[in-house]
Write a structure and sequence with these properties.
This protein is α/β, with parallel strands linked by helices and 386 residues long. 50% of the residues lie in helices and 12% in strands. An eight-stranded mixed sheet has the order 7-1-4-3-2-6-5-8.
């Protein structure tokens, strides 16, 4: 009885030893006795054949494993376990790629050190945000299968035979064409940045034209309206042009007949114009004086009767004699002489040479003789008086 109980005890111990051995092997395989510093890896997708506990490598050396993979609406998040003694060798700006070991084999995570690695190392709970994912072989095959399924073997064979016949004996020519194309591309490649810049500017120009297109269209519509208006008013426009032509003919006739007189008038008027220009500063006070005299003139002609107070001067000027002749000898500058509010009676007439001497200077009634016979004849001819 005791022997049977002892055997049973040994059997239980053996089972426990076997179970402990299986657990120990599984724990060693799953690296239960190793500690890792965990970091997060953000990726669009983890693809296929990424097993649990997949390797994490850097430059081909295993430094950890994939602890956990979670998928979400914005992609997948991998929890990478990196050995504590290796994580200090990984820069903080490291990137990651999910690569296959073989064409159809399982995948692993490859940490890629950039050209300018950071001086700080990767730490636990850091996040790697950039990743590159190769094209899945399954996706390539899935995309290629409909193409292969739609190709007719006989037609494909005929097409390949036609291509082979067309290329037969033309290898040298094709090679020359490829070399020529290569020379073109070598000259064209340096101009690619300028071409890209021109295309960008073309886009801006196109946007500008797109913005002003409504204004251009409105201008064209207004031009059509203007043309229609001209067509509707063509009779009026024709009459205006005829009147303009008749006026031009009349003006030509007038200028042909009076052109010489107009030229003479300009020449004769030149001294008077210069004189008016010299004395132009006194025009404002002169005109203001004339305006102020308007009420006095209205009073003078009140009741349509001319009213005047006539006072004879005590000393009458002498008459003109043969020695008196016209002289434009005034050399005084512009002066208002009290205008627009002159003194009554006026005194202080300026002394100037008018060709008359001894006329009497007791008053302001001083008139020089008329012009010479030549001047009289010129003025009368200008006025058209014979």
């Amino acid at each position: 009885m005791r022997e049977r109980a002892f055997n049973r005890f040994l059997g239980v111990v053996l089972i426990l030893i076997l179970a402990s051995g299986v657990w120990l092997v599984n724990a060693i395989f799953n690296q239960k006795f190793l500690s890792f510093d965990e970091v997060k890896l953000n990726t669009d997708t983890i693809g296929l054949q990424l097993p649990s506990l997949a390797d994490v490598k850097i430059r081909g050396v295993i430094i950890g494993q994939v602890m956990e993979a979670e998928s979400g609406p914005d992609g997948a998040v991998l929890t990478l376990g990196i050995k504590p003694d290796k994580i200090k060798q990984v820069p903080s700006n490291v990137t990651a790629s999910i690569l296959p070991k073989t064409l159809f084999g399982e995948k692993y995570v490859e940490l890629v050190i950039p050209q300018d690695p950071s001086s700080t190392s990767l730490k636990a709970n850091d996040r790697i945000t950039q990743t590159a994912l190769p094209v899945e072989v399954e996706r390539v095959l899935n995309d290629l299968f409909p193409l292969l399924d739609s190709i007719q073997p006989a037609e494909l064979n005929g097409t390949l035979n036609a291509i082979a016949t067309a290329l037969e004996g033309r290898g040298e020519d094709i090679g020359k064409n490829i070399e020529t194309l290569d020379s073109y591309l070598k000259r064209f490649n340096p101009q690619v940045p300028a071409l890209i810049e021109d295309l960008k500017l073309l886009g801006k120009v196109a946007d500008t034209y797109g913005d002003v297109t409504p204004a251009i269209a409105a201008t064209l519509r207004n031009t059509v309206k203007t043309g229609n208006t001209l067509v509707e008013q063509q009779s009026t426009l024709n009459a205006f042009l005829k009147d303009t032509t008749a006026f031009s003919a009349t003006a030509k006739t007038f200028l042909d007949a009076n052109g010489d007189n107009i030229v003479r008038l300009g020449k004769i008027s030149a001294p008077q114009t210069r004189l008016l220009n010299r004395y132009s500063p006194e025009f404002p006070c002169l005109l203001r004086g004339l305006v102020d005299q308007a009420p006095l003139l209205a009073s003078t002609f009140r009741g349509f009767v001319f009213h005047i107070d006539l006072i004879t001067i005590p000393q009458q000027p002498r008459g003109y004699g043969p020695a008196d002749h016209q002289v434009y000898g005034a050399d005084n500058g512009p002066a208002c002489l009290g205008l627009p509010n002159p003194k009554v009676p006026f005194t202080g007439i300026p002394a100037f040479n008018d060709g008359v001497e001894g006329l009497g200077r007791g008053d302001a009634q001083r008139v020089a003789p008329f012009g010479t016979e030549a001047q009289d004849a010129g003025l009368l001819s200008l006025l058209g008086v014979s």
